[in-house]
Design a protein that fits this description.
The chain is built from four helices and seven strands. With 167 residues, it is α+β, with helices and mostly antiparallel strands. A hairpin with an 8-residue loop joins strand 1 and strand 2.
């Protein structure tokens, strides 16, 4: 039996995207440790009306952690106090015949700082984790939020802090 490499897929695998779960400490007295930032896509953008976490492209010369910090700043006006590496989620873009790998981060921010959105979002809301799960459109964002909440369930990453905290 011979191997014919013309039968191989030409689909690319690209690491060009970051997803960032933005968290702030929940108000005292509630059942949740964290509140989660959800943002709604504006009219005239892809996925108009969908609620999402911070998401964006890694620019040429950027490392994923740098892109995550920049995207949080650009999309919310917030500066992460802490940034954690959470996981990598794959998704397929049929228009480009490309499997994208989204490097997922969690950014802990000061929830009292006013949020400023750009043109791609027309609304934002701090939600409980359960409400965020219900509101977010993409299954990979649900998974990212579940992982984040598990890893930061005690306020930081505990014994794996030294591996997950991005300097």
């Amino acid at each position: 039996m011979s191997f014919d490499d013309t039968q191989l897929s030409t689909t690319r695998v690209d690491v060009r995207v970051v997803d960032v779960v933005v968290l702030a400490p929940a108000p005292p007295g509630g059942a949740d440790r964290w509140q989660v930032l959800a943002m709604r896509r504006a009219a005239g953008t892809r996925c108009t009306g969908a609620w999402e976490i911070v998401h964006g492209r890694i620019e040429r010369g950027e490392r994923p952690g740098q892109a995550a910090r920049r995207e949080v700043q650009e999309e919310t006006g917030l500066t992460p106090e802490r940034l954690y590496s959470i996981t990598v989620n794959p998704f397929y873009l049929h228009r480009f015949d490309s499997v994208q790998l989204a490097v997922v981060f969690a950014a802990v921010v000061d929830g009292s700082v006013p949020i400023t959105t750009g043109a791609e979002h027309d609304a934002w809301e701090w939600l409980s984790p359960a409400d965020a799960m219900d509101r977010l459109a993409w299954p990979r964002e649900h998974q990212a939020l579940q992982y984040t909440l598990h890893l930061l369930r005690h306020g930081d990453a505990g014994p794996v802090e030294d591996v997950l905290l991005v300097p």
